[in-house]
Amino acid sequence: YMPDMDGFKLLELVGLEMDLPVIMMSAHGETSAVMKGITHGACDYLLKPVRIEELRNIWQHVVRKKWRESEQLGAHEEKHKRGTHDGDYSSSAYESADGNWKQSKKRK
After folding, report:
1. I need a surface site. Which of 9, 15, 30, 64 has the fewest CB within 10 A?
2. 22-62 pLDDT, tens per residue?
3. CB-CB contact of 105 with 98 (8 Å)
4. pTM of this prediction?
């Protein structure tokens, strides 16, 4: 319960002020409400009551996606800062079968 604003307004403010992934949770499962949340920037929309395992799985996906985007952006900015395109090597991150992140460098 938020007396000063609804969840969509909060989602808008978070999107404008911070670069945070948001998972909306609501008891209202109408298609229009779900689509409004997604179009306003929510990563996902869960219906209450939320199962903790469902939330955990979705949150892990959101965090991994955000981490990959940050890594890609950081690598791009680093290349741009150095003024090179690192023509001899390319690097990539991948998730191994055990769930840990690995880095590999491949010669072009």
Report:
1. 30
2. 899 999 899 999 999 998 889 899 999 999 999 999 999 98
3. no
4. 0.57
